[in-house]
Amino acid sequence: MTTRRVIDPAGALFGLGLPLVAAAATLLLPRVWESRLPPRIATHWSGSAPDGFSDPVSFSWTMALVILLVGGGCSAIAALAPAMLMMRRYMLVLGLGVTGLLFTLGATVLASQLDIPAEQAQLPMWSVGAGVALGVAVGILGASLLRDHRVRRTATARPDPALPRGPVELPIVEQVGTGTRTTLVLAALVLAPAVLVCGAARSWWPLAIFLPVAVLVLSLLRFRVVVDATGVRVQNLGMTAVDYGLDEIAGAKVAHVRPFQDWGGWGLRAKGRGRYGLVTITGPALVVTVAGGQEFTVTASQAERMAGALNTLADRR
């Protein structure tokens, strides 16, 4: 089946619509609260004392532009239907996390100075954590609604005879990336600074920043690869992130992959047009080529078995 959709509706709503709404609301607040705000508001603090001031309208314009450029700039890729689904999901969560942080911070900076002199304003640090947590939560919701609209073409020939063949004992399932022990160690390393900051600030808000960031980072290091009679797919965060059907697979092979030398780092990588990699270790990797022109590489200890099964299934197709 061929899909020619250019825009993913859910991606456009969450990746473009929400940053625009947040920016518009940020511009509207100073007008709604105009009679209750001081002529110049505090926008920078040294410790607990404000030492920088700005016009409320200028401040709101600055925040709105940053929301659009940074938050919207990251999440906009979610609207591009032909782009890789996993990449669109991560960029949407990241972009809306930034959008939530900036909007909540800007709104609470204004709200905290209603009906008081700017010199008495206190920096609402809790809004930073609340904004990140809210933005990431909405981003995950939006990510679950995204769909893979890439062009799918049916392979018309058998895989090259030189490619590996093997017994078809399905399903072949492998958890790739960091193990449970390593994941717990990395989580502790990420969360330890948050605990220290919480102690210093005597507040919970740093955890609201570090926890979503930790989940997002660690999710890039743990995946589930499944090869069965329908093809090959990669699952992450409880969702199918990569899915290549058997009817479109042109061939599968095994390669030895070095993350930094071959792909420039760990995790989800892109290398040229249509070449994607999910590399978490140095070692064997399954390399799948599809009739639509994409090539997908995923490191797995059972790469030889996976490639053999896929090519054998494609022969029978």
Descriptive notes:
It is a single chain. By secondary structure, the protein is α+β, with helices and mostly antiparallel strands. It contains 8 helices and 11 strands. The protein has helices at residues 9-32, 56-75, 85-111, 126-145, 180-201, 205-219, 259-263, 303-316, and strands at residues 41-46, 49-54, 172-177, 222-228, 231-236, 239-245, 249-257, 267-270, 275-279, 283-290, 295-299. The strands form 3 sheets. The protein has a 5-stranded mixed β-sheet. Strands 3-4-5-6 form a 4-stranded antiparallel β-sheet. The chain is elongated, with a radius of gyration of 24 Å. The protein starts with 8 loop residues before the first helix and ends with a helix.
Could you give a short description of this structure?
With 317 residues, the protein is of the alpha+beta class. It has helices at residues 9-32, 56-75, 85-111, 126-145, 180-201, 205-219, 259-263, 303-316; strands spanning 41-46, 49-54, 172-177, 222-228, 231-236, 239-245, 249-257, 267-270, 275-279, 283-290, 295-299. The mean pLDDT is 88.
